[in-house]
Amino acid sequence: MAEAGNSGGGARKRKMADKKDAGGARKLAPNSNWPAIKSKKNLQITRLKDSDLFTVPEFLSATESKAFIRAAESIGFVHQGSLGPTMGEAYRDNDRISVNDPVLASTLWDSGLSKLFSDIKIRGKVAVGLNPNIRFYRLLIYLSGSSKAKASKSELDSQKDASMEPLVGGETVFYGWRNNVVAEVAPAEGMALLHIHGDKCMLHEARNVSKGIKYVFRSDVAFA
């Protein structure tokens, strides 16, 4: 699932400021070996809460999605945790790669996102592109009572086997007034999930993965 926030791991609700590039995430220079991305002319928006929350099915094709996973796995993920809500950070427990790549960001934007945002404004500002800070997340089966960094060999072997299984769990849940559920978005291959950030950011959480592996490709839509 691709995910982008409109800027202007475990089941933990969050609306704290994300501390960017924290937790020992792997930071990389631009990579010329990313898969090619074809232009999409017929992308459609599925609105879940006006322009504050929507999905774009098949933003990446199945072939493109699998190719990005292979590319990310060849680079290698680094486990990332966080200090948690008590320290003002969103809860995190995932594997992560971070790359600053303006070419990749521009390619993704020009492949179809720019047209979808042509009529969307935030406080009079228009979307101008994707932030070149691209992140890849890998969310594995939740290991109750132990961190992934200290997982046993049998648990790690089980996680490798999980890559061959259909994904179960990993839904992203958004909450509104009095914690009423606004939307529950199940992961889907190649789907883009976009939601507003800043003071209008909805409380949200990622549910635990109970089977398989969830991959997320993330950036932020910049407005000016």
UniProtKB/TrEMBL annotation:
Chemical reaction(s) catalysed: L-prolyl-[collagen] + 2-oxoglutarate + O2 = trans-4-hydroxy-L-prolyl-[collagen] + succinate + CO2
Cofactor dependence: L-ascorbate
GO terms, molecular function: iron ion binding; L-ascorbic acid binding; procollagen-proline 4-dioxygenase activity
GO cellular component: endoplasmic reticulum membrane
Disordered as annotated region, ranges: 1-33
Primary site of residence: endoplasmic reticulum
Bias (Gly residues) ranges: 1-10
Keywords for this protein: Dioxygenase, Iron, Metal-binding, Oxidoreductase, Signal-anchor, Transmembrane
Keyword Metal-binding: yes
Record Gene3D superfamilies: q2cbj1_9rhob like domain
Location of the protein in the cell: Endoplasmic reticulum membrane
Protein name per Swiss-Prot or TrEMBL: Prolyl 4-hydroxylase alpha subunit domain-containing protein
Protein topology in the membrane: Single-pass type II membrane protein
Organism: Linum tenue
UniProt keyword annotation of Secreted present: no
InterPro entries referenced in this protein's UniProt entry, alphabetically: P4HA-like (IPR045054), Pro_4_hyd_alph (IPR006620)
Chain ranges of the Prolyl 4-hydroxylase alpha subunit domain: 51-222
